[in-house]
Write a structure and sequence with these properties.
The chain has helices at 2-20, 24-87, 91-94, 112-123, 126-153, 157-169, 173-181, 186-196, 202-221, 224-256, 261-322; strands at residues 97-99, 107-109. By secondary structure, it is mainly α. The protein has a two-stranded antiparallel ribbon.
């Protein structure tokens, strides 16, 4: 962009030199106009570069957070496996139970939900359960990113359109452009593109609204496909653990030469726990996906309604000030 501006300034300088010999006053006017235009384009380019730099820094922090969460998950898995290897038994077997003094055969288990979750994580097999946990972490990370983006994109469109209508009623197109450029959201971006082409006819304005509306819809839908991927992956990983657990159960039966509940229980436990884990992760991500989908469709509907209102305002402006 800066190179293009330099070339534009150089060409303008050549033209100015050609004019200088014939009309010095016109030459001075052209020089000031070119300098003002070039400075304006340079300032706009600097603003765009600063915004892109801020977005890159935000994305780097987001990716670093995801990497940190993944490392914590892997470290938790390794710590659990090390605990099992050092004790030789699962934490569930070392828990102490205190029988209640009443006549019912009810026992109270110590440790709470966290201990029970860790125990089931170990019993399901750290290899499969760790992959399911990583799937949950990545899916939640993408869901959180989309929630933030869609909430920032969903602003007060009614007030923005009223302000645009006020500027166009007064014939202040530049003020409307400035307002659209400084406002966040897809509706403001579409309005800015339409206002840039307001002098090129209503057909050009409508085509620009349709084209840039498709671009904004793609930005809103970005990364939703990754969430659907993790929703499909979580049960698949659980079913894979189920198949592996069944294979382990049959291997244990073959080695023991006897079909007994004790022999089959280990492999069946792995099969069932991994399936439960995968289904729970899929259900959690499905809830977030449905929320994001409803949010996306709502913003898309408001974009279409705002685009129709914007075209009406431009038609009124053309009739009032351009006699079209």
């Amino acid at each position: 962009m800066l190179e293009w501006l330099k070339r534009l300034a150089w060409k303008a300088g050549i033209r100015q030199k050609r004019i200088a010999g014939s009309n010095p006053a016109l030459s001075a006017h052209c020089t000031s106009s070119v300098e003002g235009y070039v400075n304006k384009q340079i300032n706009r380019t600097r603003k765009v570069l600063i915004i892109n730099l801020k977005n890159q820094r935000t994305m780097k922090r987001f990716l670093a957070s995801i990497a940190l969460m993944g490392l914590l998950a892997v470290g938790f898995t390794n710590a659990v496996v090390a605990q099992v290897d050092s004790t030789g038994v699962a934490p569930e077997q070392t828990e102490t139970t205190a029988p209640v003094t009443n006549d019912d055969n009810v026992v109270v288990t110590e440790g709470g939900f966290h201990q029970a979750l860790k125990t089931k994580f170990i019993e399901g097999g750290p290899e499969f359960m760790a992959t399911i946990a990583i799937t949950l972490i990545l899916g939640l990370a993408f869901a959180l990113e989309r929630i933030i983006y869609l909430n920032l994109a969903d602003n007060n469109n009614e007030k923005f359109l009223r302000d645009i209508e006020g500027y166009l009623d007064r014939g202040d197109v530049e003020g409307a452009k400035t307002l659209a450029r400084n406002t966040r959201g897809p509706v403001a971006s579409i309005a800015y593109q339409a206002l840039l082409r307001i002098d090129q006819g209503l057909d050009v304005v409508e085509r620009s609204i349709v084209s840039y509306g498709g671009v904004q819809a793609g930005l809103l839908e970005k990364n939703l496909s990754w969430i659907t991927l993790f929703i499909a992956m979580a049960p698949s990983l659980g079913f894979l653990g189920t198949v592996v657990g069944m294979v382990q159960a049959f291997d244990a039966i073959e080695q023991a030469g006897d079909i007994s509940p004790t022999v089959v229980a280990g492999g069946m436990k792995v099969a069932l726990i991994t399936t439960i884990g995968g289904l729970i992760v899929a259900l959690i991500l499905q809830v977030f996906y449905n929320y994001l989908l409803s949010k996306y469709e709502g913003i898309l509907n408001r974009m279409e309604d705002s685009s129709i209102s914007l075209v009406d305002y431009i038609v009124k402006y053309n009739v009032k000030y351009r006699n079209l």
